[in-house]
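Could you help me review a protein record that somebody else here produced? What it holds is a sequence and that sequence's fold in token form. I need someone to confirm that the token line plausibly describes how this chain folds. Take the sequence as given and treat only the tokens as open to question. This is what I was given:
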Amino acid sequence: MNLGARPQFGGSHQVHGAGIRFRKVLFGSFSPLIAAVLIYVVLVVVAYVLYGTHPEVTLGVIAILTLPVVGLILRSKDFLKSSALVVAVLLTYEALQDISGGLVNSGRVVSLAWMDKAMVGSDFTLDVQRAFLSPTVTTVSIVFYGIHVFLIIFALGLFWFKDRLVYRGYAYSLVLTSYLALVTFVVLPTAPPWLSGSAQNLLASGDKTFPSAFQALQNALLSGESDVVAAFPSLHAAYATLFSIFMFRLGRRYGIVSLPILGGVYFSIIYLGQHYLVDLLGGIAYAGFSTYAVGRLLKRQHAPRPKPSPLPM
């Protein structure tokens, strides 16, 4: 007998058991994300085959690349699990937008320029461009226009760390707003001002003032845009509005800090020729409705249940 040899029984069983536990954790916690990635890939392929549209490098893709980093910084497995569901829904939404973009781009597109003229008596987008047109304003506006995606990533991490109820309200409102807008894009495809010919596309021309690396990044982000006739409601305005609403719910100081960002996004989407005033107001309305609906839902979930009355003797 070799007394110096280590006992081998149970070792393979322990390794096998650890592997099973790992797979259960992986596929149990992240199964929505795995399913969404598969759905996303399938729908992107379908959109490319049918309509020749390329996938957008947008919110869901950026989130799936950055949220794990946020989770590691926060050292929270629960954040990774919870954010996985949010990313799953957003990825599915963006894959569906690829399909919807192909459907509506070949159909009838509506311009809402007449609504701006009815409200303010003139072409509001063009008036803003004429009043503020300058290389500096264009440069600053492009930065604000692209900041909304990173605000969402920042907000998810901040709200999770500070207040879980605020986090849930924000995440649910974000998802509801996105899907309500998606339905609107299919039912009512609307052209932005630059496509209608009522304003300049300063977003496309203004990036020439940036370094070549920034221009390459912006071209990569915009090259896969599958649905350009999705001006109403403005999701830029909606996402910025949600950010500010829930920053105020986190605390007054947080809300006040969010106001310059909110104003910058509102101004940039008009000034750059990407949205009409009515699109901006529509984004605010969609964000407000989603916040209200989600608030009612969470209030019901957290309402104390009445205790059953005692049985009569």
Observations:
- The first strand starts at residue 110 and ends at 111.
- The chain has 15 helices and two strands.
- The chain has a mean pLDDT of 75.
